[in-house]
Amino acid sequence: MIYRKELEQPDANADVVLSLTRARPPGWTGYAQRVDTELLRETAWPASERPLAFVCGPTSFVEAVASSLVALGYEPRRVKTERFGAAGSP
Question: How far are the Cα atoms of 18, 29, 58 from residue 87, in angstroms, in the given order?
Fold first, then answer.
């Protein structure tokens, strides 16, 4: 996992939530699922706090996460997205 060591430092941001969707190291106690509405409902900041969310990844991931955040009450203009992958990919 990229930056795992940095994310697990005691001084790292306390709001970091990790979820591994494939192989997990022995003793893994974090989430083991894809990012979906239920995971976001449990771990994301409440929409009432008007958080600014950044979502980056393949188009299908970005669309799913951004849509889930909006469904949870996030203001669409406060959900910033960046997609990568083949042009026109679903």
Answer: 28, 36, 10
